[in-house]
């Protein structure tokens, strides 16, 4: 940042993954919350085909209002690129029939991208190469946390409890489905089948018995050629906890919250998460004894540190009927929609939405790029 101008924040959203609409909705909330008195904001959309464009940034146009009313980036807008220059990194806009226009230096990127090609370390690596600060986890933490199969390996190696499971690739299934069935039978039904590198419960289904396995794998393979198959945590409570970095390199946690799914939803699927008037009860904070809440908060920091997290993360737990707490997953770029648990947990902890966004930007601006 040069002179006395306000720091310029590029909010990047959309992307090529199946979570494109969720990313747009998250961006709408972030764009509405950023303090324009403190920051100069530039909305950058990534279209489904990968084109980077200068978006309008209208929060109302980025809301999810129904199952068929999902927001999307308009790929026909003026193209945007990051250009490395002597003093830093500039934003360059190119529109058909007009000479390229330089918008000026970018001080920090807020990548509210979910899923592959965004949350998985790819854009983080690009920003590191460009020398641009950014909000959230670095390359390794993003990649490990996005791939649930490797996330489980890392968490287990750190001594954290995880649900039993295994991975199945589309190639394995096509080559020898009987061998896969035999391997999975050892886990015991019911089983959850999910894309290994997905999110927002997209592509997840529950196989109650062997006859449903093929259909569940086919659903997961529509989104990822690698599926994670896990034992179902029957009768478990679903508890989440927010982690937020501190300027001294540490981390603090929010109060835990609980998700209870009712009605026709057997689990916390996409509709229950994001569509209005769905039958989901969110208890913030969760009704937990103080010692159990403290245990989950401590486990959240351990999970955050195990993957090398930075900035923010949401850690999801199953509290099993026998009282054991198991880490389900860690999400390095949790949703920021009005229904999202991460900002709600921090609001209940005393940090409201605008203050949370401001804190994340402060953390990013204080952190350099490169090895650290």
Automatic annotation (TrEMBL):
Cofactor(s), by name: Mg(2+); Mn(2+)
Catalytic reaction(s) noted: 2 D-alanine + ATP = D-alanyl-D-alanine + ADP + phosphate + H(+)
Signal peptide per UniProt: none
Keyword Plastid recorded: no
One GO molecular-function entry: ligase activity
Pfam families tied to this protein: Dala_Dala_lig_C, Dala_Dala_lig_N
InterPro entries on file: ATP-grasp (IPR011761), ATP_grasp_subdomain_1 (IPR013815), D-Ala_lig_Van_CS (IPR000291), D_ala_D_ala (IPR005905), Dala_Dala_lig_C (IPR011095), Dala_Dala_lig_N (IPR011127), PreATP-grasp_dom_sf (IPR016185)
Domain ATP-grasp: 152-362
EC assignment: 6.3.2.4
Subcellular location: Cytoplasm
Primary localization class, coarse: cytoplasm
UniProt KW keywords: ATP-binding, Cell shape, Cell wall biogenesis/degradation, Cytoplasm, Ligase, Magnesium, Manganese, Metal-binding, Nucleotide-binding, Peptidoglycan synthesis
Name recorded for this polypeptide: D-alanine--D-alanine ligase
Source organism per UniProt: Nocardioides marinquilinus
